[in-house]
Design goal:
The complex is a heterodimer. By secondary structure, chain A is α/β, with parallel strands linked by helices. Chain A is built from twelve helices and ten strands. In chain A, a hairpin with a 2-residue loop joins strand 1 and strand 2. Chain A is globular, with a radius of gyration of 20 Å. Chain B has 18 helices and three strands. The chains are: A alpha/beta, B mainly alpha. The interface between A and B is medium-sized, with 30 and 22 residues.
Chain lengths: ~300, ~425
């Protein structure tokens, strides 16, 4: 047990009482061999509900029986060691796995009473509703304005140039980028700094007003200051959107999320309130990971 | 006691050898570049030194009297009568008047031989264009015969015995006299750029072949670029990966290596014999060259599509763009420079191709400059081949000049494509 955990003993004790989990001397109780999900994967009012998701890459079973809810106006963080399937799971939610040859997804992903994993679902409106921000900032090699305007244009969200200007402006304001770029909207988006590019990508995603935003390690290519800005932004975006974020940084998960899900080699090991996961993990694997024993 | 060897000493000891190897490698590279440059410059020097004189042509000044009696006996200036008048006789009469001392039948014929047979056509055209010339006298520069031209350009050796020369002593004397009078001049050879092919070197020009090449390549470009790009997009972006697409891919790669004359045979069998398209037409030539160019363009375009970073596709798909929108707005603009490069290579190949065009009749002797894709024509490389095959000495320089025109055409075409590509290339 690390000294940090000892110092938090008071809080841990409190947690134990409120959550009603049994702990033995402040240690996780669920054995490393157990692969069933520990904790509550359901929430009261889910925005998206995943049931028994399985993903295969060819013959490789990448995700096994994952069930998880994404609540309204919450940030759900997914953590876990590399190759644990958290990004794969995220990409199921807007069917980005369709673009990968040999990838097969089973299970139900309910959004607004429809199973988005059904082959009948049209992925174009789905992806407009479930936006995605990628690991590496990937602005289009076009102007800043065009980067934002592309989504609304293809979906026909703006009926005249004024409306388009408005969408571009509000998206950039929401992404906290407006002040920095308002005088150079016609300049290339690829000329911005890494952090600005990532916020541009977030602005591009919210320009089509999605309900849910998926973020796949959005800060892994950014420096700490840019990361702080993006995290601040994520917290603000929570007011209007549901957000699922994959991250390698446990500190980041602790800072931005309300709920945290820990993945391990394709299994969802533990889900719970972020505070509980980081202070009082119930599964030994979770504990190993957040105390830095591996990962 | 021996000091233990430190690795830095080992490194230092090997340095000299390492650098020597590097220098040697650089020298080989430099030598290869220099050898390449040497051969290219030899090629250019030999072509230009042989061909530049073709841009100059000897002309003879004839003091022509446009005799009304002879040209327009009816006096009505009727174009039908004017066009049938004996202009050859007019040329001969003028020559006789210039050299009144020539009387013998054979001598006269030799005298007439100094001037190109095109002179009569030139006079006829002048009269038809401006009938008011009739009844006046005017000095007219007409092309000299190619033998005279060769003599002035120094390709006929005066010291040879008369029987071994194409120009006889008598003719040499007349030429000298004309030159002394200032009635024999080298002028810029406009005929070379305005006329089609001819059996007379001094009347032959490159324009027919140039226009033929232009029409043929226009057909090739218009067909092969859209078809090639569309095929590449389908195969790369939409086609499922299965045995059929693998088979298609193997076939496309093999087609790129098929000898071009095979495409000519195919064109002959399919386009001419089956579809009944006209022989020797740029349309058929363009179709055949399209078949030949397609694999090149498809392969290059697929490589260009493959090299577009997947993050761009994901970005577009991630905000709900459909596949076609992703390709049209984001993938194609990024792939376009690569596609254009492939097209340039394909078109340059097509421009230099002669074998498949021989099979579809573009090797025919065609005098008229083609006015469209259905007119019989030939192309630059075939024209070069035809002239290189001609016995007249004057065609040697024209062959080289035609090669220069072909190279200039190639350079212009590639420059255009480079400008276009620069425009498509992303500006940031």
């Amino acid at each position: 047990m690390s000294t940090v955990m000892v110092a938090d003993e008071a809080e841990v004790t409190e947690k134990r009482e409120t959550k009603g989990t049994t702990r033995r001397d402040g240690r996780a109780t669920v054995s490393r061999d157990v692969r069933e999900t520990v904790g509550e994967m359901r929430v009261e009012e889910p925005r998206m509900r995943c049931d028994e998701i399985n993903v295969w890459y060819g013959n490789k079973h990448a995700i096994r029986n994952v069930s998880l809810d994404i609540g309204k106006n919450e940030v759900l963080a997914m953590i876990g060691p590399s190759g644990c399937g958290k990004s794969t799971f995220l990409r199921c939610l807007n069917r980005m796995n369709d673009t990968i040859v040999g990838c097969r997804v089973t299970g139900r992903i309910m959004l607004d009473g429809e199973d988005v994993n059904s082959p009948r679902i049209d992925v174009v409106p789905l992806r407009a509703q479930v936006g995605m921000v990628f690991q590496k900032p990937n602005p289009f090699p076009k102007s800043i304005y065009e980067n934002i305007a592309f989504g609304p244009r293809i979906h026909g969200l703006a009926h005249n140039p004024q409306e388009m200007d408005e969408i571009v402006e509000t998206s950039l304001i929401k992404a906290g980028l407006w002040e920095e770029v308002k005088d150079r909207l016609d300049q290339p988006g690829t000329g911005l700094s890494g952090g600005q590019q990532q916020r541009l990508c977030i602005a591009r995603t919210i320009a089509v007003s999605p309900d849910i935003i998926l973020m796949d390690e959005p800060c892994s290519a950014l420096d700490p200051i840019a990361t702080a800005k993006v995290e601040e932004l994520i917290d603000e975006l929570r007011q209007n959107y549901s957000i699922a974020i994959v991250t390698h940084s446990m500190q980041q998960a602790a800072r931005v999320s309300q709920r945290t899900a820990y993945f391990h080699l394709g299994d969802l090991i533990e889900v719970g309130d972020t505070k509980q996961i980081f202070t009082n993990p119930r599964h030994e694997l979770t504990e190993d990971y957040i105390t830095g024993r591996f990962g | 006691m021996q000091q233990p060897t430190r690795s830095i000493d080992v490194v230092r000891a090997g340095l000299a050898k390492r650098y020597a190897r590097e220098r040697r490698f650089k020298t080989y590279g430099l030598l290869a570049v220099l050898a390449g440059l040497l051969f290219v410059s030899i090629l250019f020097v030999s072509i230009v030194s042989k061909g530049y004189s073709a841009f100059w042509q000897s002309y003879v000044l004839l003091p022509v009297k446009f005799d009304a009696e002879q040209l327009d006996p009816t006096g009505e200036r009727d174009p039908a009568v004017l066009s049938r008048a004996d202009y050859g006789g007019l040329v001969k009469q003028t020559l006789r008047e210039m050299f009144p001392e020539v009387t013998g039948r054979r001598d006269k014929r030799r005298l007439y031989d100094l001037v190109s047979s095109g002179a009569a056509f030139q006079l006829r055209q002048m009269v038809l264009d401006d009938p008011s010339l009739i009844g006046t006298a005017k000095g007219v520069w007409v092309p000299a015969d190619d033998d005279v031209d060769m003599l002035l350009k120094g390709h006929i050796d005066r010291t040879l015995p008369e029987s071994d020369r194409r120009l006889k002593d008598q003719q040499l004397a007349w030429v000298d006299k004309l030159q002394a009078q200032g009635a024999l001049q080298q002028r810029f050879n406009t005929t070379f750029f305005t006329a089609g092919d001819s059996r007379e070197p001094e009347l032959s020009g490159i324009r027919g072949a140039l226009m033929g090449s232009l029409y043929t390549l226009a057909v090739t470009l218009l067909l092969s670029f859209p078809i090639g790009v569309a095929a590449a997009i389908y195969l790369e972006e939409f086609a499922p990966r299965n045995r059929w697409t693998d088979l298609i891919e193997v076939n496309i790669n093999n087609l790129a290596a098929v000898p071009s004359i095979v495409f000519g045979l195919l064109g002959l069998a399919v386009f001419i014999n089956f579809f009944g398209l006209p022989r020797s037409a740029p349309l058929v030539g363009g179709l055949v060259l399209t078949l030949m160019t397609l694999p090149t363009i498809i392969i290059a375009s697929r490589a260009a599509l493959k090299s577009v970073p997947p993050s761009i596709r994901e970005a577009a798909l991630g905000i709900g763009a459909s596949k076609v929108q992703t390709i049209v707005y984001h993938v194609l603009p990024l792939a376009m420079p690569g596609m254009l490069t492939g097209t340039i290579i394909g078109m340059a190949q097509a421009l230099g191709e002669s074998a498949p065009l021989l099979m579809i009749g573009m090797v025919a002797f065609i005098v008229d400059v083609p006015g469209g894709v259905f007119d019989p024509s030939t192309v630059l490389p075939v024209q070069i081949f035809l002239w290189a095959d001609s016995p007249e000495r004057a065609f040697v320089e024209r062959t080289s000049a035609a090669i220069m025109v072909l190279l200039a055409f190639l350079i212009v075409m590639n420059a255009l494509a480079v400008v276009l590509r620069k425009r498509f290339e992303r500006r940031w």
